Amino acid sequence: AAKQPLKVMISGAPASGKGTQCEMIVKKYGLVHISTGDLLRSEVAAETEIGKKAKEFMDNGMLVPDEIVTNMVLSRLSQNDVREKGWLLDGYPRSSSQAASLEGVKLRPDVFILLDVPDEILIDRCIGRRLDPVTRKIYHLKNFPPETEEISARIITRTDDSEEKVKSRLETYKRNCDSILPIYKDLLKKVNGNRPKENVFADIDSLLQQISDDFAKTKYLE
Ligand code: AP5
């Protein structure tokens, strides 16, 4: 019988490790990773109409207007691969109106993972973060330096990763976070993100494994 696909939301402050954990989750569970930050950065890089509108908001650490982001997410969620493989939503919803858009079309996750990391660690993580524009892999100059000289020569810094912009992103996150959590409180799992990434993943892995096992049991009983 076909396996029931998982539906996962991952949330947390800027640099709490969402993208890093998503890489590991996708590798093991094969879910479709939908990151609004990545989708928006691709639009900016390709200089599309959406990208031109989004850039100024992103560069200032502000949220991009809902109608842009919500249309992008809903259209991605409606594609076939998502229905077959399940989804991993990263960075959305980020406001109560975005959460309401999902509730409106009855899209709810099986689990809402919240990565918890102290503020002072977040700033250091952003300042040291580098991106490989070829593979989109996330590095950190101290914590996870690139594996080869070739990658070191091509990694780039995100335009919103300066100390000042990170502080403003953090403020935006804190303002919005409290309005979303009540909507998912029955599905909320807080994970301590201030540990080596393998340990963080071990906790997430056991949560997802538990849900998959519960699905399998229900199917067996039917
Ligand atoms: P987005 O890209 O979502 O940015 P963010 O939420 O600020 O999160 P980050 O990507 O900065 O961090 P992360 O948690 O993925 O951490 P990472 O794994 O990279 O959004 C960017 C912008 O787009 C927003 O500001 C907004 O303008 C716009 N936007 C996006 N979604 C939107 C929405 N829904 N509505 C409106 N606007 C939206 O890790 C960070 C660093 O730490 C890396 O260097 C990594 O190597 C390192 N690291 C990771 N884990 C560990 C660990 N366990 N130990 C040590 N180091 C670690």
UniProtKB/TrEMBL annotation:
This is adenylate kinase. It is found in: Plastid, Chloroplast. The chain holds residues 93 to 314 of 692 of the full protein. GO terms for cellular component: chloroplast. One of its GO terms (molecular function) is ATP binding. Keywords: ATP-binding, Chloroplast, Kinase, Nucleotide-binding, Plastid, Transferase. Belongs to the adenylate kinase family. Its main location: plastid.
